[in-house]
Design brief:
This protein is α+β, with helices and mostly antiparallel strands. The protein has helices at residues 19-22, 30-47, 105-110, 161-165; strands at residues 2-4, 9-11, 52-55, 67-70, 89-95, 115-120, 125-133, 136-143, 148-149, 159-160.
Length: 166
């Protein structure tokens, strides 16, 4: 016990706290979260009923995908306990983390994803990866804010990089 010198009466020492309990959880990347929301909205509005836009849902081996445009189904994939297979994904989109860790390409290509778009706010570009295979993707293209791009599954839809970068 410690002694309070002002009153000369014993005072209990404060309890020891575990430093791990005081550690704050990592701050969420709000800009990334807003980028995911904006991209999902842009895709959903433009696609209408032509595809099911799923944002951060259970996409099985595709858990690194932020938004997936899926082949339309009457049940809209409700009630699935595991995500749809990669061949049901018409377009996958990921927003690159601000910490620079990137998005792993090989597992997404190997899962059967044919097209992956990565929104990279740090370079203000949209990376378009096509031709998924076990080694990753066969083709990569960088799209700037004012450049057009169309998903392979919807060649009549034209997006500009700024549509997804904003």
């Amino acid at each position: 016990m410690a002694t309070d010198l002002r009153s000369a009466s014993p005072v209990a020492a404060p309890p020891q706290r575990d430093a791990a309990l005081d550690a704050s959880p990592p701050a969420p990347d709000r800009a990334r979260e807003m980028g995911v929301t904006a991209a999902a909205h842009a895709l959903a509005v433009r696609l209408g009923e032509r595809g099911v836009v799923q944002s951060r849902g259970p996409v099985g081996p595709l858990d690194r995908v932020d938004v997936a445009v899926l082949v339309p189904r009457s049940d809209r994939y409700l009630g699935l306990t595991a995500g749809p297979a990669g061949d049901r994904v018409l377009l996958a989109l990921a927003v690159a983390p601000a910490d620079g860790t990137g998005v792993p390409l090989r597992p997404l290509g190997a899962a059967g994803i044919e097209e992956l778009w990565i929104v990279d706010r740090s370079t203000n570009s949209l990376q378009v990866h096509r031709g998924g295979d076990p080694t990753g993707f066969a083709e990569t293209r960088f799209v700037g804010p004012d450049e057009p791009v169309s998903p392979m599954a919807f060649p009549d839809l034209v997006f500009f990089g700024r549509d997804l970068l904003s």
